[in-house]
């Protein structure tokens, strides 16, 4: 027979802290063997009367446990329920909100969480796991990789060496349990280091004071020799207890480890350096994608970049940070190029909202994590990973925004046909002599070009530009005989006739 359950030990639910109350109820129901009945996995038998009676009694016991842990205001909500399963379903429908707005808020709390200076590592891990559990409670998928990434990326600066060492751990050992034990061990090591540095500072201060006094009191015997020796012994004891996370030996920390691998500038570092050169700080915002932890969807404000677009429900809006609602005109796909390990790859961002009044392009962290991707932020770098595969990268700019390593491809640009004729490259290179263009391509001065033809070309612009007019010298003409030059004007007919009877018309 099961032990009697003390109902007075159960906290009554008053409408707040539902997740904690539900956990308490699950523990109590498991203790009484009623968990499956309440959650609908053990259904009521149909034929056997004795089994039906036993099931009904257990269901009534479960109803009694649930209602005994509710105050009267909450009991009013479930008075019409006829089974324990109906009670828990009714409470879940009220207090486990699964709306899009609650999902967005839960995602925002998860991604914006940072470890406080006063928190221990154990508290920090518990806080992250609680935030992840709230996401799971509303139907969102949060992988262990995402939880571990969040724990590591929000650690204080003093754990920098640990973060670098964790990346070198094999993937099969990168588990949440292993991470927790290693972090607790690292926290203890750092605490010992701080104690040792404090003791060393105090000891150094005493030594400096002793040196200054020694110049005036050389003959005075030392009265603090025993205390100094005691301090040295304490420092030595602390040092011996320190464990190096790099090599596993005691007596030093990873920062001073001689077995630390030599740092090699990785291709990834070069990638971010080249990004800074290629995209300066004053780049036009219309071509920039910002990683946003508060955005519930990818958003764009340039219609010409959509490769396709479908209509949305009339009156659809999005709310931005200053509580201003902006209209959504449509939704579609965007063709981009993303930079990964120094190379540009074509990709497509789907289900992007067209928000003309937004004035910046937003890449939603919530959408990325909803797909099962994890986001790793370290220093000025951010990486979006699908397991161990790098999906996209971003870098922190001077305005503390993570800029995605994206560049837009307009629809017209994506659909245009590239012409590689000699005439086309003659025009592109500022009408350089066609013979010179061929020589530069063949010699490798211009790389990546294959001419579709090498025939001689006739450029009308070059012909017009090289034309010139012959000079006509001015000269003065003088008449040598009378009547050689006659000046006339249009007039007439003249009324006076000539001697021959003619009328003059000039």
TrEMBL record:
Domain CCHC-type, chain residue ranges per copy: 243-259
Biased composition (Low complexity): 218-234
InterPro entries for this protein: GAG-pre-integrase_dom (IPR025724), PolX-like_BBD (IPR054722), Znf_CCHC (IPR001878), Znf_CCHC_sf (IPR036875)
Bias (Polar residues) ranges: 201-210
Keyword set, alphabetical order: Metal-binding, Zinc, Zinc-finger
Domain of life per record: Eukaryota
Gene Ontology terms for molecular function: nucleic acid binding; zinc ion binding
SMART domains for the chain: ZnF_C2HC
Entry keyword Zinc-finger: yes
Pfam name, any one: Pol_BBD
Region of interest (Disordered), ranges: 201-235
Protein name: CCHC-type domain-containing protein
Naturally occurring in which organism (per UniProt): Gryllus longicercus
